[in-house]
Write a structure and sequence with these properties.
The protein is of the alpha+beta class. It contains ten helices and 29 strands. Helix 9 packs across helix 10. It is elongated, with a radius of gyration of 26 Å. Bound molecules: zinc ion.
Length: 483
Amino acid sequence: MLPAALCLLATSVLCPPSVAGDSPQSPIRLVYSGTYRLEAHLAKPHDTLDFQTRLTLLADTDNRARLDWESWPKGHEEQRDLDTTLIAGTRVWRRTETGKPFVEARDKSAALLRARVENLIPWRTLARARSAPQRDPAQEGGALAWTDSSELGGFARRIDFDADTHRLARITRRFAHPRLGDAADEVLYRAWEERDGVLLPSSLTMRELDGGNSLRASPGSFELRLESAEAVADLTHELAPPAESISEADPGPVVPGEIEVTELEPGVLSFASKELDGRSYAVEFDDYLIAIDAPLSSALGERIVAVMRERFPKKPLRYVLFGHFHPWYTGGLRAFLAAGAKLVAPAGCAAFAEEIAKRPFTLEPDEWARVARSPEIERFSGTRAFEDAHQRLEVFDIGARSAHTDEYLVFFLPHTHTLLEDDIGWSAASDGKLSFGRRSRGLYEFLVEQKLEVRSLWQSWPVASPRPRISFAELERGVRTPR
Ligand SMILES: [Zn+2]
């Protein structure tokens, strides 16, 4: 049974006019289970990896809480991962694997972890919102908007209540994502029900688009049902701060340095940001340029476009292509569209580019949002060539042969026997030692079948690779050597 004080507290969640802030008189344990979907970098846009998941929340009457997040591939609970977050006052620790040390999170990553944990104890968030010094008075429909103190991360958020039931319906944090534009992390509460005299949301959805580093984070979402709720006599031990923890490495603000311009061969240049790990290539024709790959964010794309223009002030960026849809190659696409480039792509990638072009960027408008045009898109299937008197570029969709994405373009320059590709050819250790896998083999077999006379290959990613270029002979030897 849950104590009466907790029932009071839970009731206050439901009734916005009442004054919240009552603390439960007893610690509680809640268990939610359901699915966790991760929109990782898979074979096609919006594919997800789905896991079964269980979230066990422990919260005391102060400001301590703990979330044990277990997840496993469907039907394989023996492969369960455990990820633990602990909160005590303003401090947040996370341990991503049993046996590893806790790491004390800071700044944005601490605030995001706190939000995830407190999504499951909404009365605590609600109480804080009501007592926040920075509340937005101009809220319609009983919504509540506030900004957390800077020591809690300084996020501006909003709570919406259901118009009929007056129950808590949604907590949202809107933000400008550097690649996705207007975005929101949010939690939706549904089907409040009484458990042991306490009202709790019996189902909820949590969507997390942001991460400590927005560019690296993959969108994830939880669909959860309440399994159990119980009062616990004492959680002192479970909620104790870790005896030892290490400090999160301070990533510092990622300040992109110069765009480094390298001529790979006459008429073929690399424009790369080492700090952000993103690169575009430019192929020079007599009257225009073709850009290949548009990395990571509108801001990075715009900087690359500016440097390309400086380097080639008289040549318009007529076309932009990308090897595959992952963010390292498409995240900055809007900048190239804004520069007037026509996108040339196979059907699936063209549809994805249309989606990119339509994303709203109202919170922090990028160039493309300002020019407000429709994108020019040309579709092709299989292969497409560009040629003038001095240059020829042949583009091939090697598709599933990439063992990476359903559509995958590689770029061949027959005059120099050079192939440009994104990320499937090889990987290089820091000492330069090469390794080859299924993707390398798919690429190699495609080149052989097409009888392309490739002599050397450039690989776009990672930018800091000690071996961005290898010879065709190295690729051949690598894929033929049994591992
Ligand atoms: Zn990729």
